[in-house]
Design a protein that fits this description.
Elements (H helix, E strand, L loop, with lengths): L3 H7 L8 H13 L14 H14 L1 H4 L3 H7 L8 H9 L3 H17 L3 H7 L1 H4 L11 H8 L8
Helix pairs in contact: 2-3, 3-6, 5-6, 5-7, 7-8, 7-10
């Protein structure tokens, strides 16, 4: 739930507003030291998501690593605004930090029969970020590898 203060700061991220207003909102949020970054995870409605992802990207790993599970859930559908920005953010996270979260997301997607999410998560094996040797469960790596056709366009 987003509090009123954060809602006031997030509302101008709406992509329907003039670009100058969006840019000012992004810079305002980035200048804050006491902002709840979790409120940037798919806030308000889809009109705000792309710019929220831009803010998260600018914040960097040290400030948003605690949101890794949420970021992986954001990429359940790469058609959602900001999803490709989030994928790029996740690709910058250290492998040893990201891998346990990724393995959990793979298991969750597999258990819920969410093949599209598995396809989107397979970008991490397709781009070579992770090797089979790094995975605790080699079976999870194989699951991702089997979904890489998404990227062979």
């Amino acid at each position: 739930m987003i509090n009123k203060y954060n809602s006031l700061l997030l509302s101008p991220l709406d992509w329907n507003l003039p670009e100058a207003i969006q840019d000012k909102a992004i810079n305002n949020i980035l200048s804050l030291t006491d902002f709840d970054y979790k409120s940037l995870i798919q806030p308000i409605d889809i009109h705000h998501w792309e710019n929220a992802a831009k803010v998260l990207s600018a914040l960097g790993y040290n400030k948003i690593s605690h949101l890794t599970k949420d970021l992986l859930e954001w990429v359940q559908d790469v058609n959602w605004p900001g999803a490709f920005i989030v994928l790029d953010i996740l690709k910058t996270f250290p492998n040893d930090f990201l891998l346990p979260y990724l393995e959990n997301a793979i298991m969750e997607a597999k258990l819920s029969n969410d093949d599209p999410w598995l396809e989107y998560l397979s970008i991490f094996t397709y781009c070579g970020k992770f090797s089979k040797e790094e995975f605790k469960s080699k079976k999870l790596f194989d699951i991702l590898k089997s979904h890489e056709d998404q990227w062979n366009v």
